[in-house]
Automatic annotation (TrEMBL):
Keyword Protease set for record: no
Superkingdom: Bacteria
Gene Ontology MF: a single term: hydrolase activity
Protein name (database record): MBL fold metallo-hydrolase
Tagged with keyword tRNA processing: no
Keywords, sorted A to Z: Hydrolase
Domain Metallo-beta-lactamase: 12-182
SMART domains assigned to the protein according to its UniProt record, in alphabetical order: Lactamase_B (SM00849)
Pfam families for this protein: Lactamase_B_2
Coiled coil regions, renumbered to chain: none
Organism: Planococcus halocryophilus
Length: 233
């Protein structure tokens, strides 16, 4: 059984704690390590690793202190090069090459964001649970079978974004960048339609925009489409 805790999500920082009861992991380190410790009641000693998707500060600003705490961070070469950090606990992983952390077998895969080498991660544990984590991507070109837990960005609604641009609330120059770097509600729904959801237990919609999203609308539309439990932290 997988347990998921959101420690931070959104443009001010992203960090999630997951465990299958045997191997606790962090997904992203976009907040200070002391905040990670505080949110986990200082129960961080058993964390076995941290997966980093890309080099934007809201996903990795806490990496130096996470490394100092003795937690190995896993990331692409492109992300490592952009971070400019050398540390024996910084491990480069390759696209579509599995690696192991405790009871998790982890497959990095390429996603679409305006950075050097961003990854999503598919995590499978020895009990057969399968968690897909994908954030900061405007689409996912792969299909996945037998996912049990989905953690996916759902940043904005195209309709809300266009209304905000017309009203001047959102600068026009941001429209193209958002559409080529972040997952819209509309594209998330298309991704869900394209994948086998028969074993899916829960969907976590992450990284909602403060101004271009509507939490209740997103929850309702994805729940109506999938019939699954929806969490929006």
């Amino acid at each position: 059984m997988i347990e998921i805790k959101t420690l931070a999500t959104g443009s001010k920082g992203n960090c999630y704690y997951i465990t299958d009861g045997y191997t606790p992991l962090l997904l992203e380190a976009g907040i200070k390590f002391r905040d990670i410790q505080r949110k986990l009641n200082f129960q961080t000693r058993d964390i076995k690793g941290c997966l980093i998707t890309h080099e934007h500060k809201d996903h990795c600003m806490g990496v130096p202190d996470v490394l100092k705490a003795g937690i190995t961070c896993y990331l692409s070469k492109g992300t490592k090069d952009e971070l400019g950090i050398e540390h024996h606990r910084l491990k480069v992983v390759e696209n579509k090459k599995q690696f192991q952390i405790g009871t998790w077998t982890i497959l990095p895969f390429d996603v679409q964001h305006d950075v050097s080498e961003p990854f999503g991660f598919l995590l499978v544990n020895s009990a057969g649970d399968k968690l897909l984590f994908a954030t900061d991507t405007y689409y996912i070109k792969y299909r996945f079978k037998d996912i049990t837990h989905l953690m996916v960005e759902c940043n904005y609604s195209q309709k809300i974004l266009d209304e905000n641009i017309l009203s001047g609330r959102t600068p026009k120059v941001l429209r193209k960048r958002l559409m080529r770097s972040h997952f819209s509600l509309e594209n998330v729904k298309e991704f869900l339609k394209a994948n086998d959801l028969s074993k899916l237990q829960e969907i976590w919609l992450l990284h909602l925009s403060d101004s271009n999203s509507n939490e209740e609308q997103f929850r309702q539309e994805v729940a109506e489409l999938t019939g699954k439990m929806i969490y929006i932290p």
